[in-house]
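Weekly modeling sync, notes
Attendees: S.R. (lead), two postdocs, one rotation student

Agenda item 3: backlog of single-chain predictions. S.R. asked that every request posted to the team notebook include the full sequence so nobody has to chase files. The rotation student volunteered to paste the first one in as an example of the format we agreed on. Action items at the bottom.

Example entry:
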Amino acid sequence: MKLSWPRLSSWLVPRTGWIQIEVTSRCNAACAYCPHTAYREAWDSRDLSLATFQRLLPVLARKRWAYLQGWGEPLLHPDFFTMVALAKKTGCLVGTTTNGMLLDAGIADKLVEVGLDLVAFSLTGLKERNNEVRRGTSFAAVLEGIQALRAAKARAGSVKPQVHIAYLLLRSGLPDLEELPQALQGLGIDQVVISTLDFVPAQEWLGETLRPANPAEYEELEARLQDLVQAGERYGLPIHHQLPHPGERRLLCPENPLQSFFVSASGTVSPCVFTNLPVSGVTHWVNGREVPYRRLTFGQVQEEHLGAIWRRTPYVNFRRSFYTGVLAAPCRHCLKL
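Predicted structure, as returned to the notebook:
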């Protein structure tokens, strides 16, 4: 069989890992801590074209997961369900993250029908606390969306999609932790993943990061999170978190840049979503200092196949930096490490 260049080029991409695809950078919410809100005057809101998405399909067959989400709300894309169906045909698993505001009974039925494997609902706190921080969203509406999806799965006799909670824990949200398992019990949630604020777009959010400054603070926070995990077990709710120890640096980023990558709604390829915000001329805060935000991109999928972009010397050198320990500028002080 003669292979076409797109299919041949896809073999240059590693078989494991995942590809995160930003199907849209548009959003119907205005979460206070989100770059989309902080940089709204400079933000480039756009949808990934279906033609560009189709150029990615040969690579999806070599990835375990295709995750259709970036800095926007995926369900706003008019071709979202078509994209899920096309990705599923390649044989990979397909997931997404939503704020839940568009997920009614009809959308829930479509998510089940198209075979989506995982949907995560975003939360930042409980009840009114969530609503205050995640402006334009509603904690009650998120729970209604989860219930609608649970009902759709029951009607179809399906166990998919799995339902996850993507829970952003801010320092001011620590008092909500004890109530979390009880608030989410009985909803058919498969997993809660707790993350912390990794990108600080404005000075006012510096105090919301959760990075223990010393071993004593680490032990205190780790104990609270372990209590939460145990409480979740009592309610049949698996809860996962990763808390970095002060003074230690992870050898490899959780974004897995050695095997995975991010494609933005404009078609640019980056190591992760944090290195490819659709903005220019803005600043963010790193180690308590305001610094210019600089994107890190290695190619455009409309112009070059992903396999060729992956093998380009600058991208290869970026990945090698994790072995040498001399990290690229965007990674050097990233809170994920």
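Discussion: group reviewed the output briefly. The longest strand covers residues 162-169.
Action items: rotation student to repeat for the remaining queue; S.R. to check formatting next week.
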